Amino acid sequence: MNKEVLINAGAGEIRVAIVEDGRLQELFLERTIGLDDAPKKRANGRHGHSLIGNIVLGRVQRVLPGMQAAFVDVGLDRAGFLGAREARCLADLPGFDEERTPKISDCVHEGEEIVVQVVKDPIGEKGARLSANVTIPGRLLVMVPNQAGIALSRRIEDEDERARLIAMGEQMIAEANGSLIPGAGFILRSAAMGAHLHDLKEDAERLAETWRPVLAKRQQASAPATLYHDLDPVERTMRDEVDAVTNRVLIDDAASVEAARAYCRRAMPEAEEKIQLFSGPGMLFDMYDLDDEIERLVSPRVPLPSGGWITIEGTEALTAIDVNSGSFTASTGLEETSLNVNLEAADEIGRQLRLRGIGGLIVIDFIHLNEPENIQKILDVLSASLAKDRTPTQISPMSEFGLVEITRKRIRDPLAKLMTECCRPCDARGRVRTRDSVALEVLRRIEREAAAAPGKQILVRASPEIIDWMAMHDSEVRDSLARRGAARVSFEARNEYAREGFDVGTAA
C-alpha cells in the first residue's frame, strides 16, 4: 500500500488528505481565518474549528436526575452535556466498579467546579458532549490521569503482542521513580505495536510534562476556563495519521514543514525523513484532482464503476443511502446484476461515510437479493469497508426488505453542513454553498493565479457579500495570502455576481 499524507496549509484553511494508492481515504478541514473575530461561531463548533480534546474547568449549571445527566457551563454559547457514564470517575462510592453507572447526583452538584474534556463538538442545536474522564493523547500512549492501569487499543489484535505491551506498560509504571503522574493510567495506541520499553517511557514522560501545567492552571483558574488545547492541525496529523506504512508527508508551506519536523524531533524522530516541502508544479491537491473530489462530496449522488450509483440524503433523524443499478446489466441475470452493484456500493459506502463525516443512524437500501450467500457477501464487504474507520460503528443484519442499519458515532457536523446551508429562497428545500466556503475557494484561486503569474497584481471580482467577508477579515486575509506568495491583491464588488460566482485574474 502506498500511503501519502498531503497537508495544504492554505490561506484561511488547513486541509489534510490521506491518500492510499492514489485514492482519497480521509479528509480533515480546519479553518483559520475569522475565528478570533467570531467567538460565537467558534463556540458553536462551526466553520471547521474543532473543540475536541480541549480540557476545560467548567461549572455545573443543572443536574437532571430524570436524564441522568448534567449541563455544564464551559464558556460556549450552549452548556455542555455530561452524562452519568462520562461522570462516573467523579463518584466516590464504596464498592463502585466499571459495571455499575452511578447516579448523576452521586457525581456532581449544581454550582460545583469540575474539570471536563470535550469529546464531541457542538452539532446543530446540541451543545458539546463532555467527559470527566479526561485523556491526553501522545504518539504511542494516551494518558488517563483519573484512572490507573494499562489498557490497549482495540486495533491491537495479536494476542502475543497484547501480552507483551501490557507487560511493558506495567513495567514502565513500576519503574517511573516519580517521573510520571501518580495514579495515572495509560492506553497503548496501535502505533505502539513493535515499540520498546524506552519508547513508551519517553512518550509517558512527555505526557506527564504536558499534564503538570494543566494541574497548575487549574489551581489558579475560575470557571469557565480552558486549561488545555490539543495540538494544532499539522502536529495532530503527524501524531495521529503518520505511521510505519506512510511513505511520505507532503506539505505546501515552509512554516508548517518546520512545525511538523519540530514535532517529529520531539515525539517521533523516525518520521522526520518522510516530510517533504511541496513546491510545485501546480497546487498540492492537483496531484490527485482532490479539489474536484472534495467538491463532489457535497453532492448526493456518488457514481459507481459499473454505471450504477448511490444517493446519500441526510435528515434530522437519519441518513438514507439508496443503491441504484443505473445503466449496468449483467448478462447472467437480475441476481448477478444486483450483486455486482451492491458489492461496489458496500465497498464505497464506508469511504463516503468517513469523507463526509456522517454519523448517527444510517439506513442503506440495497438492491433486492434472493440468495442468502449473496446477502452475506454484501455484509462482509460492508464490514470490511467500515473496519477502516476509527470512529466506532455497528452494523445490523439485512432485513427482509433489503435494508441495513448502521450507527456511527457523531463527532462533528458532516461536511455538507460545513460547506453548505439551507437555501432560503427555495424554502429550505435545497442547499447552497456557505459564504465562508465560497470565500475560501476564492482564496485558493488567488493562490493558484499568483503561482502562475508571480509578482503580478491579482484582481478579484465577486459578489458584495464575498467582498464584505474579505474586508471583515482584511488583515488575516492579506497576511495569509502574502505568506502564500500572493502579496498584491485587490478586490472589487460586482452586484451582477451571485454568491458562488467570481472571477480571479491578473490586473490589466
Output mean pLDDT.
90
The span between the termini is 48 Å
Number of helices: 13
Main beta sheet, described? 6 strands, mixed
Unreliably modeled segments: 36-48
Note the beta-strand portion. Answer: 25-35%
| Rg, Cα atoms, Å | 25 Å
Q: How are the strands of the largest sheet arranged?
A: 16-17-18-19-21-20
The helicity comes to 25-40%
Judging from the principal axes of the Cα atoms, what is the shape? globular
Could you explain the architecture of this structure?
- Helix 5 (233-241) packs across helix 6 and helix 11 (435-452) crosses helix 12 (464-472).
- The protein is globular, with a radius of gyration of 25 Å.
- Helix 3 (159-174) links the parallel strand 11 and strand 12.
- A six-stranded mixed β-sheet has the order 16-17-18-19-21-20, with helices on one face.
- The chain is of the alpha+beta class and 508 residues long.
- It starts with a strand and ends with a strand.
- The chain contains 13 helices and 26 strands.
